[in-house]
Amino acid sequence: MTSDFTTLVKRALKRIPKGKVATYGQIAELAGSPRGARQVVRILHSSSERDNLPWHRVINSQGHIALKRGQGFELQQALLESEDVFVEASGHIDLKRYQWRPRAR
DNA sequence: AACCTGACTTCGG
DNA sequence: TCCGAAGCCAGGT
């Protein structure tokens, strides 16, 4: 079956509900590799458009948008707010309120 | 096959 | 609390 890390990451990403966010590490963990956060980044770069992945719902463990101003930050912020996720001017997002808590299944 | 790189994470000073 | 260094792992060169 298709259970390689990359596939699992894509699946995890697609499970993130609208209006919620997840951290890179969280996605990696769901895909079975707790330390694979960097791979998640790689996958987003290589397949976010092709596979329609909700890349904007992924932020770093600090609860911040990982992109820099002028390099996607504004776009991600806009996409999130269009889903009713409040993003502070600093790029911080309240994880307590918006982090996706997937249920084990 | 070795080496480099990255939208990360964690730990120590 | 802030900053830098080290650890991590898969895909591209």
Walk me through the structure.
The two termini are 18 Å apart. It contains 5 helices and 2 strands, in the order αβααβαα. With 105 residues, the protein is mainly alpha-helical. The mean pLDDT is 92. Helix 2 packs across helix 3 (37-47). It is globular, with a radius of gyration of 13 Å. The protein binds a DNA duplex (13 and 13 nucleotides) through residues 5-6, 23-25, 28, 33, 35-46, 55, 58-62, 65-68, 71-73, 76.
Keywords:
DNA-binding; single chain; 105 residues; two-stranded parallel ribbon
In short:
By secondary structure, this protein is mainly alpha-helical. The chain has helices at 5-15, 24-30, 37-47, 73-81, 95-98, and strands spanning 22-23, 58-59. The protein contains 5 helices and 2 strands.
State the separation between the terminal residues, measured CA to CA: 18 Å
What coarse outline follows from CA principal-axis ratios?
A: globular
| Mean pLDDT over the residues | 92
The helical percent reads 40-55%
Unreliable spans: none
Strand arrangement across the biggest beta sheet: 1-2
Q: Oligomeric state of the chains?
A: single chain
Structural class based on helices, strands and sheet pairing: mainly alpha
Main sheet specs: 2 strands, parallel
CA gyration radius, whole angstroms = 13 Å
The helix/strand series, from N terminus to C terminus, equals: HEHHEHH
Number of helices: 5
Strand tally: 2
